[in-house]
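Let us work through a complete example step by step.
Step 1: write down the sequence.
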Amino acid sequence: MQRFAHAVLRRRWWVVGFWIVAMLAGGFAAARVPDRLSADFSVPGQEGSDTQADLARAYGIDGGAASVPVLTAPDGRKIERAEVAGVAAALRALPGRQVLDYGSTGDQRFLTDDGRSTFLLVFAPPAQGPSLASTVTAAALPRGLDATVISYQQLVAGGANPDEGAGVLAETLIGAAGALIVLLFVFASFLAFVPLLIAAVSILSTFLAVLVLTTVTEVSGVVQFLIALIGLGVAIDYSLLVVSRWREERARGRSGDDAVVTAMVTAGKAVLASGITVAVSLVALVAVNVPLVRSMGLGGLLIPLISTLVVLTLLPALLSLAGPRVDWPRLRKEKHASAAWLTWTRGVIRYRWIAAGSAVAALTIAIVPLSGLQIGSSGSGSLASSGAAHDTLTSLRAGGVGNGVLTPVTLLVAPGGDAQAFADAAGSVDGVRMAIRLEPAASGATAVVVVPDHETVDNTSVTVVTAVREVTGDLPGYAGVTGPGAQVIDFQRAVYDKLPYVIALIALVVFVLLVRAFRSLLLPLKAVVLNLASVAAAFGIATWFWQDGNGSQAVFGIAGTGAMTFWLPVLIFAFLFGLSMDYEVFILDRMREEYERTGSTAYAVEHGLGRTGRLVTSAALILFFAFAALGSAPQTDIKILATALGVGILLDATVVRALLVPAMVSLLGTYNWWLPAGIARILRVAPSPLKPDVELPATAHRLVRPQNAH
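Step 2: predict the structure and record it as tokens.
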């Protein structure tokens, strides 16, 4: 790191020029990336996704989603079959549409209990083409009918315009404003603007890299939110650590490039370890054979890598060129550790057993709701609390038509199979409202649409999909089942059946990396275990708040979701595990440095946290502001992602890093720093043998002066 820092400083103007070009190109790319992002929810190799592809080839339709036009007659009369047939005919005239309705079948199960309203099921090509809503309205109005088109995806978008909300740029500016307030408190000088500049370069450069990535693979639309808000927090956090250490070294008397190099050797090393840790957490997603998850992993992977690269190159160049001039008026000094954090840490050390027990109890309480976690999609009741789509779905349910119309199950029958036999068998399943055949496709295959009573969106409700598979799977001509419920099952099999192995692999790789970084066995083991506990606690709180609805209605006006959307847990885990480990690395790296100087665990804990406590808390607040801005997005899933990450970061920075970590390091004593010679040789680092802990007098905790960090 020392050689790298000197190399950067020798070429500082070239470094600055390179990142200026990258930032300008990134501004151009940021405007074009959203149009190149995708929403591929397929799961290759799973029955639901493969059947959906077969259905698309046979009929040219997307069997994974259905639009549901709802027609309602005026007060005082029932809807007539002929007028429904007229609307359905107008829909069939649209290219590629397949329509099931009361008009063509005469099936009374398409009607509400009072006979005033009816629903239609419309399956469209993946490229929707002409507006369905305008066609329905134009055909319904001359017949005196009210018409509304609803769908699950429309409710996901908030029941109205999916473009509503602050927007990515506005959300980023909101997060940046919150971060600036924290930075002004930390630095009390114009230096507070430097981390924001680093974040701007990092975000725009990441958009440039993603634009290039979209030319070779699909990238999920969620990635733009991750780059803007998580990229903002990560870049500022990393900058905060390096700039604070630079100020500290200047306060100790180092000047010019010496202070920059020392900051790089110490804080820069921690940033590199943290960036690699976050990247490792995300790279595991790339190995998952699910395009949505893989693209999130690829896009997310670029965030810590580029942020780390910018912080380790552009930031030292800027500090060397202009650091002392912008560090004005310097109302806050960095010569001594924070008195408040020193007092806090001494209290934790003194009452270490009580501190550790209290933190473990708090984490346990937070983890308990995790046992009820459901994987799938959010229930329709939580997706929109107002609007035409919400009101229409509510009236359907009041009329005896369940919300299962939003998530039909589609059976595909191969040529030669008896489609009616499939419809009869599926229709006999408990929890199924109706099962109706489409007209055979040109290939001879036939689709049977099964409408469940209740939406199939989570672990529990997809049992009806499994039951339909069981009663039809042995019939001649069975080609597969698809639909939203089948998609939930696909994700469970492809992702969550393997998730424990993925988590174990991530934990093992991170453990090895940290053993090398800290030259210790117990510190990395403790870090990994506490990180997993911290992430589990965040999931428990998110389950309690969002899935079970304990507060989501009061805070966001959204009812309990009933389940976590299948891609959320893996993404939350990957980011939260990596970001939480950042703070562990920052704190433990400084504790190790203080221990190397003094040989005293008590001094290392006290002054390690005394120096980093304010930074970690400030960094957590910056990320929290970024996630709070992300929470203003209209989509429920994005709100869940934002709140889970925000609460997880705060929980980790307070209960875990400020309480449990110093208590446990204090309890473990000299064993914290032990690395046997045999393991050290394998990892190519210096060993750290066990040696008696130095007991410094109370006054020494104030008198020990830092030695050269090199």
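Step 3: interpret the result. The longest strand covers residues 446-452.
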